[in-house]
Design brief:
Layout: E1 6-9, E2 12-15, H1 23-30, H2 41-49, E3 52-58, E4 64-72, E5 77-85, H3 94-108, E6 113-116, H4 122-125, H5 143-147
The structure holds coenzyme A.
Length: 148
């Protein structure tokens, strides 16, 4: 378990403390996305428990405004997923802030590779050093389809 990260700006707290997460809110957000439509609350909770989550919170009342999580071995490899910013708070740099803090922390911890998949949010990640990968080298397996 890595130490809890905290950063503050403009009355907002960014924290990797899993105890701060509003699970009901995050489940509502993520289960409505194109990549996790219909994901159950239980699956979301277990996915969070098995990864390193981060949230952005309004300091005045603790309300959660953004979420993301990193799946990592903590040593060499990390996968960023479930990045979400409250629709009313988009376009104010929260997404970029969240990803930059995670990126810098993983780099400090000595990890080599940080990957993600996105349909249309490349502009959030490109300024932070993410580059398209060679589609001919990466492979994936739909586990349920392949074994069902
Ligand atoms: C994608 C998302 C996390 C971005 O959060 P945000 O707080 O609005 O992002 P930022 O304000 O830090 O924006 C950073 C840059 O990315 C651009 N950007 C943000 N969202 C974008 C999107 N969906 N498509 C294209 N560009 C986007 C912004 O215009 C900004 O560019 P600029 O610096 O040139 O002005 C947010 O729109 C969101 O939650 N979307 C729904 C869920 C989603 O698609 N998550 C990402 C999955 S990979």
């Amino acid at each position: 378990m890595s130490p809890v990260l905290q950063e503050r700006r403009d009355g907002l707290l960014l924290s990797t403390d899993p105890g701060l997460i509003d699970h009901e809110l995050v489940h509502g957000w993520i289960s409505g996305t194109y990549w996790a439509t219909g994901r159950s609350a239980e699956t979301m909770r277990r996915a969070i428990a098995g990864s390193e989550p981060v949230g952005v919170y309004r300091e005045a009342d603790g309300r959660q405004l953004a979420f993301a999580r990193v799946v990592t071995d903590g040593v060499v490899f990390a996968y960023l997923c479930d990045v979400f910013v409250d629709p009313e708070c988009r376009g104010r740099g929260l997404g970029g802030w969240l990803v930059r803090v995670l990126r810098d922390d993983l780099a400090r911890r000595g990890l080599k590779r940080f990957v993600l998949v996105t349909r249309d949010a490349h502009r959030v990640y490109a300024p932070l050093g993410f580059e398209p990968v060679d589609a001919g080298r990466w492979m994936e397996c739909d586990l349920q389809a392949a074994t069902g």
